[in-house]
Amino acid sequence: MKIVEVKSKKDIQDFLELPVRLYKNNPDWSQPLDKDIEAVFDLKQNKFFRHGQCSRFILFDDESKVIGRVAAFINDRTSKKEEVPTGGMGFFECINDRTAAFMLFEHCKKWLSDRGMEAMDGPINFGERDSWWGLIVKGFTPVPYKMNYNPPYYQELFEAFGFQTWFEQWCYSLTVQDRPAPKFYERHAALSTNPDYRAEHLKKNQLDKYAEDFRIVYNKAWAKHGGGKELDPKQVRLFFRKMKPVMDEKVIWYVYYRNEPVAMWVNLPDINQLFRQFKGKFGWLEKIRFVYMLRRRRIRKFIGLVFGVVPEQQGKGIDAYMIIEVQA
Question: Taking the CB of residue 270, how many other CB atoms lie within 10 A of it?
């Protein structure tokens, strides 16, 4: 077996096509868009290259067949803040073979060590935590857009090599027909009689207004949580404009107290239900199909992105009030 750094167009294609072979009989896997994967490794598209470095690799067996892939990377902004200089690895895909997997892990370990790192996190993304982050160990069901999916045997490979759980992230789902607990309705009823409170969903023709309301709530509720940073108006407006084509107004909600935003709940349609049909491609034909299917409401699931209540309104039932408003 040998490991080769991804450089040529053929290498890139091998890197993208390996998962297609590994998951060809798995109905729960959705093939990511090639452009989304490649954006991570594009110096012009991924801003993390301004303060970091990244390389990716493919593993060949003795018959020159690709049987594994991985990427290793360093984010200088975060690695230097750790007590132990820490790099990352991700985009791991491999056949169920310890020798093959360990070769990839060892290669990343050495690549990071040669650059001054003393620890390795993975599987993570060379980018924000909202994409390609983590390892599924329970609940192997179709995942949302830009989320990792992996077969169960990956857990054994990671743990056998020596990876340990750093933190757990739990995801939950329910149908819109499921009734929340009675206390949600009680809290909703109590706040509904108070004229100082009102709930409303986003309206696309006032996008900048709702972007600013989002920013206000986020900066109060989340900016100081877990080392986060405040969002600036330009950043949030750009974020909302990027989301606009796939937004459903009826699943993005706000609560106002005396006309000031105090809570928000941002959800998006699960567009992976459509993208999985495109086999990794998103050219003009796929874009036309995507718009058509989106308008025909072919999506039956929405995904929660962020939920927040400003500190001074927490503990008053604002969350329950907003959830029942959305359900209604």
Answer: 19
Work out whether the CA dihedral 257, 267, 179, 170 comes out positive or negative.
negative
How confident is the model over 35-58, as pLDDT tens digits? 999 999 999 999 999 999 999 999
Q: Residue 19's Cα: distance from chain center in Å?
A: 18
Pick the CATH number of 182-327 from 2.40.50.140, 3.40.630.30, 3.40.980.10, 3.30.420.40: 3.40.630.30
SS3 labels along 228-251: CCCCCHHHHHHHHHHHHHHCCHHH
Q: Which fold has domain 2-161?
A: Aminopeptidase (3.40.630)
Written as one letter, the residue type at 192 is S
What is the three-class DSSP state of 255? strand
Measured distance CA(170)–CA(167) in Å, rounded: 10
The token pair at 259 is 């006309």
CA atoms within 13 A on the CB side of 55: 16
Whole-angstrom distance, CA of residue 225 vs CA of residue 215? 15
Instruction: Strand 302-309: give its sheet, edge to edge.
Output: 197-201, 252-257, 260-269, 302-309
Q: Is the dihedral of CA 197, 203, 206, 211 positive or negative?
A: positive
Q: What is the pLDDT of residues 164-197, one digit of tens each?
A: 998 898 888 888 778 889 999 999 999 999 999 9
Nearest Cα to 254, choosing from 321, 328, 174?
Answer: 321
Residue of 294, 240, 239, 241 lying closest to 269 (CA atoms): 294
Domain boundaries, the chain: 2-161, 182-327
Q: Do domains 2-161 and 182-327 have the same CATH topology?
A: yes
Q: Compute the C-alpha angle 125/130/131, nearest 5°.
A: 45
